[in-house]
Amino acid sequence: MSQKNEVLWFLHTLSDACSPAPLAWRHRSTQRKDFLEKDDLKKMETKLLLSLPEGLEVIGINVIDGVLIISAVSTHPSACCPLCSSLATRVHSHYTRKIADLPCAGQQVRLLLQVRKFFCEVSTCVRKIFAERLAPFVEPWARVTTRLYQSVQTIGFATGGMLGARLADRLGIQTCPIAILRRMMALPTEPVEQVIELGIDDFAFRRGRKFGSILVDMQSHKVIDLLPDRKAETAKAWMKGHHSVNPFVRKKSWPLVGKVI
Predict the structure, then answer these.
(1) How far apart are CA 142 and CA 173, in angstroms?
(2) To which H or E segment does residue 164 belong?
C-alpha cells in the first residue's frame, strides 16, 4: 500500500470513529433516555390537546375497542376536607375513577383518574376519611366531566331527546334520549316574575291515565311551569302566588279555568 493510500485509509477510519453511532448501535441507556423523552413529550402534548386541568398528569395512552383510554394521576400535594375545609396531607389509599370526556376527532375518550383518599386530622371533624375533589373538572360522584355534561345539555335544548341522541352519536358522545332529558331537567328553573297574560292548557303525563296542566307566558311564548294535575284548586293556588292576571285558555280547558277566575 502506497503512502497516499495509507493516509486516506487512516483519515477514513478516524472519521468513522468520531461520527455518532446509529441508533441501533447506541448504548441501551442512551436509547432508553431518548425513548423516555419522546414518551414524556407525547404525554405533555396529550394533556395540552385535551385541556386537562393543573394537577392531573398523564401516565398512559391506549386505544381499546375504538375508545381512547387516557390514564392520569392526581399530583396535588394536599386536599381539603369537604366538611371542615382543613388541608390534609396524609394519604389513606388510592382508587380509580372512570370518567367519560368529550370526544377527540370523533373518537370516544375515557379518563382513568387515579385519585387518593386522605385522613382528616381535625379531631372535631365527623369525616375521618375523604376522597380528594377534582371540581370543577369533575363533580363528586359524577361519571362524566363537567364539559361533557354541559355539551349534552346544549345539544338537548337545541334538538330535543331523540334527535339529540342521534346527533351525539355522530359526534362520538355515547348517550340516550332519556339521559339528555334528565340533564336538561337538572338545570334550575328561572324565577317566575309577574305574568300579564297567562295561558293554561292540559296535557297527559301518561296518555289516558294521568293529566297535568301547562302554564305559558303568552307574551314571551315560554313555558313557565307544569302543574301535577288539572284541578282548579292547584291552578288557583299557583296564580295567587305569582300574581298572574288575564288568563287565556283553550275552549276545551275553559271549565277548569272558569272555576279559578
Answers:
(1) 16
(2) helix 161-171
